[in-house]
User: Which sequence fits this backbone?
């Protein structure tokens, strides 16, 4: 079986968990004797190609092989999710505008022929444009390469996936690593939401990384539950080496590590810390990461007068993350909404007991973690206190946690994904 | 010689703990969830204790002394009856008056004291037997330990306390080829007779009765009597030991469990081959066949039939050790409320909630468990124990007014306080 996979990032150039997950999954698929062609917007050449063949979308010329532009555009016309949602226009005006838009599109497409588009592969201001261009290139790639099934990761690649499906007629599987609701709470970007929904509607099968995500997909996007399947993420700790650090302070350290954004629930962590400090003055708290709530969190800590015990590190990179775990006695992930959440697993792998919110996908697979509701500051504080005060508890959580994490293998997750491919392909034949 | 069937029911409800956060430590020393305890007790009284007692009373009257049953009622549940449902005690009292009911002795607070402290064990057994005597006017002569926990050593202590017999599990790994359907004796002191639970026939009622996937479903009194007589073809006794809550609570009334109980005595007595009796009656009638060697404690729980449901992981061991570390201080303090809390915290249920086995094996565990995970159970329990230990230390310091004792105790307090905060 050969899979054409659309991703946005791939190790070592990653800014989130998506790249890591794609890497793990592709490796697992290869171990399950499935071939993967991995397309990404901007490859630099130093990606680990041991398992997959990387196609750099920036290298693809949109060729003239597709002679009939109109026909092509009919197939992939939705690519331009233009801003045709303009209020207060009468129908005639609207038609005019639409024709204009379509003509412009054809024009633009002609211009695009024979050209390469240099993707940045980042998450910048031109993101929407890049997403659309990526789709164009996706269609082109679908014509050039031979494969059985298309697999697209997250909304950024959905349009490319759909384009590839329309052009090739091969089935499409989309993978939901995070929904717009996870990223933005209730104030969603409707453009992104639309792309996600179109992607999932067009897809023959939707893979969600947790039951939590599956429920959002079904309830908030109105996707047919029958075609939404949960495949939990896994972790790859093959190359993991635990680091030894020399602690500057003897105090026990409780850590928050992640983007400091609404979604990650940093303020619940701060509130709980203040409660713990009242009864356990010897503890120290660290908030590692950066994000739009960074300044607000600092103010919050100052206001609670715990700044002498509460430390901010700013953004941490690979090795520093490992060191941070080595420093930690307790790791807390108080996420308000977390489709999966890989960092508690990294903490457990570093022998750190973890507290995770029940509103995270990873809570569905972990038994040896303490689970609390993100809003239940009392319970969170209680769990922190217990892990600091009762050595038997943390010892047990660490020992069993390590076994548990080591049993979450990408090969198993990839096997489920492969099963899904087979199901989709069989359905297609019938 | 007559073949005998012994029906014994365990009556117990724990004092469930309230959600006890660490900020309560040292500030609020009330540990119990009165609302949950009352609601559950009232519910079980209504669904099980009262109707089942009524039914058994009717059966005893109907069969004029040919139907006999045995109860063991823990001090924990008696205290809750007194507080929330005194009518249940009255109804047990009515049963006691028929003369066809035997009450067993056990540890007052359904504790695991036999595994760690002989003194505490003896005190609790004495306390319980006095309580039963005051309530029902019967001095228990036969003993059952919490969760049917038994070992040679525990048996010899029980014999030493003057009991003539003890109940325990007919654990396969102990019996080997031997049948549970005979009377055995303790390996150290042969004066103590042992009645062993026939777990197949007991669990047919207690666990499998309503299981529609079971090939023998539905179980009728007639069918079940067939199994009983078959088991008694060669053997002497069948011991059916189970939770009383089986009737109406674990097996709801809609499963027909009450009808089953109602018709069972009639079916059994109709055969003219076997009779019902209580443990004391059995000891008077039957001869023990052999001593039974049980070097390590057994119990009636789970597949393993050992003590791992309560003391099987480090959480449970830590909580257990921490609690009993206070025993000496509690007793020295002479503080009654402290002692009462000490007893309530010993209930085996608290340790059961911390069992990690339920991840793999455990509809049964889940059913009895108010906590979502063993970790939560441990956290809550340890917070309570931390407060309890603080109180113990305070009490002993207050007691020790003499200069020498005060000098000895002062650092002890300091250390204990530190333990709570930094360990």
Assistant:
């Amino acid at each position: 079986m050969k899979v054409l996979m659309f991703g946005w990032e791939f190790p070592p150039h990653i800014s989130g968990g998506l790249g890591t997950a794609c890497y793990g999954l592709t490796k697992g698929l290869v171990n399950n004797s499935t071939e993967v062609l991995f397309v990404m917007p901007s490859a630099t050449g130093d990606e680990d190609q041991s398992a997959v063949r990387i196609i750099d979308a920036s290298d693809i010329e949109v060729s003239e092989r597709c002679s009939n532009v109109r026909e092509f555009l009919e197939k992939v016309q939705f690519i331009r999710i233009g801003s045709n949602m303009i209020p207060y226009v009468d129908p005639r005006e609207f038609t005019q505008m639409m024709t204009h838009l379509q003509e412009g599109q054809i024009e633009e497409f002609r211009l695009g022929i024979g050209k390469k588009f240099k993707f940045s592969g980042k998450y910048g201001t031109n993101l929407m444009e890049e997403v659309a261009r990526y789709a164009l290139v996706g269609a082109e790639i679908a014509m050039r390469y031979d494969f059985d099934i298309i697999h697209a990761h997250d909304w950024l690649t959905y349009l490319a996936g759909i384009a590839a499906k329309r052009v090739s007629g091969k089935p499409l599987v989309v993978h939901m690593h995070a929904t717009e609701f996870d990223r933005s709470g209730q104030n969603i970007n409707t453009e992104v939401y639309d792309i996600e929904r179109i992607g999932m509607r067009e897809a023959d099968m939707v893979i969600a990384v947790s039951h939590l995500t599956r429920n959002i997909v079904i309830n908030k996007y109105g996707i047919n539950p029958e075609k939404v399947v949960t495949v939990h993420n896994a972790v790859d700790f093959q190359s993991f080496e635990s680091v030894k650090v020399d602690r500057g302070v003897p105090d026990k350290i409780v850590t928050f590590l992640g983007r400091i954004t609404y979604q990650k629930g940093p303020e619940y962590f701060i509130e709980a810390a203040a409660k713990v400090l009242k009864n356990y003055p010897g503890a120290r708290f660290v908030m590692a990461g950066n994000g739009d709530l960074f300044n607000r969190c600092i103010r919050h800590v100052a206001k609670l007068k715990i700044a002498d015990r509460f430390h901010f590190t700013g953004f941490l990179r690979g090795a520093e993350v490992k060191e941070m775990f080595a420093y930690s006695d307790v790791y807390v992930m108080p996420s308000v909404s977390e489709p999966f959440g890989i960092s508690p697993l990294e903490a457990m792998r570093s022998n750190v007991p973890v507290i995770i919110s029940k509103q995270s996908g990873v809570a569905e697979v972990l038994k040896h973690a303490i689970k609390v509701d993100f809003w239940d500051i009392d319970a969170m504080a209680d769990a922190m206190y217990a892990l600091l005060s009762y050595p038997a508890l943390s010892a047990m959580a660490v020992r069993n946690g390590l076994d548990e994490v080591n049993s979450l293998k990408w090969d198993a997750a990839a096997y489920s994904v492969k099963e899904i491919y087979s199901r989709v392909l069989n359905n297609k034949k019938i | 010689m007559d073949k005998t069937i012994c029906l014994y029911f365990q009556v117990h409800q724990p004092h469930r703990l309230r959600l006890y956060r660490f900020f309560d430590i040292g500030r609020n020393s009330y540990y119990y969830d009165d609302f949950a305890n009352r609601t559950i007790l009232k519910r079980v009284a209504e669904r099980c204790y009262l109707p089942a007692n009524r039914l058994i009373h009717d059966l005893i009257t109907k069969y004029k002394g040919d139907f006999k049953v045995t109860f063991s009622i823990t001090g924990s549940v008696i205290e809750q009856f007194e507080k929330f449902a005194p009518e249940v005690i009255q109804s047990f009292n009515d049963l006691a008056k028929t003369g066809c009911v035997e009450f067993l002795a056990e540890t007052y607070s359904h504790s695991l004291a036999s595994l760690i402290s002989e003194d505490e064990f003896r005190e609790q057994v004495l306390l319980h037997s006095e309580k039963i005597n005051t309530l029902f006017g019967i001095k228990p002569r036969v003993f059952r330990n919490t969760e049917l926990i038994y070992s040679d050593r525990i048996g010899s202590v029980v014999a030493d306390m003057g009991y003539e017999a003890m109940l325990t599990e007919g654990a396969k790994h102990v019996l080997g080829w031997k049948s549970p359907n005979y009377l055995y004796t303790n390996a150290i002191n042969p004066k103590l007779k042992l009645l062993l639970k026939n777990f197949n026939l007991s669990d047919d009622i207690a666990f499998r009765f309503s299981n529609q996937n079971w090939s023998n479903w539905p179980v009728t009194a007639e069918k079940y009597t067939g199994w009983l007589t078959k088991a008694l073809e060669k053997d002497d006794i069948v011991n059916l030991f189970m939770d009383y809550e089986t009737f109406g609570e674990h097996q709801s009334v809609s499963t027909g469990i009450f009808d089953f109980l109602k018709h069972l005595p009639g079916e059994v007595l109709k055969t003219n081959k076997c009779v019902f009796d209580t443990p004391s009656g059995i000891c008077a009638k039957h001869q023990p066949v052999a001593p039974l060697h049980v070097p390590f404690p057994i119990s009636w729980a789970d597949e393993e039939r050992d003590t791992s449901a309560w003391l099987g992981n480090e959480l449970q061991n830590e909580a257990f050790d921490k609690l009993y570390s206070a025993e000496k201080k509690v007793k020295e303090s002479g503080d009654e409320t402290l002692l009462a809390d000490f007893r309530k915290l010993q209930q085996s249920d608290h340790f059961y909630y911390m069992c990690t086995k339920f991840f793999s094996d455990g509809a049964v565990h889940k059913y009895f468990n108010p906590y979502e995970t063993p970790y939560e159970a441990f956290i809550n329990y340890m917070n309570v124990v931390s407060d309890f230990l603080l109180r113990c230390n305070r009490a002993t310091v207050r007691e020790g007014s003499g200069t020498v004792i005060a000098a000895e105790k002062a650092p002890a307090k300091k250390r204990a306080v530190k333990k709570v905060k930094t360990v």
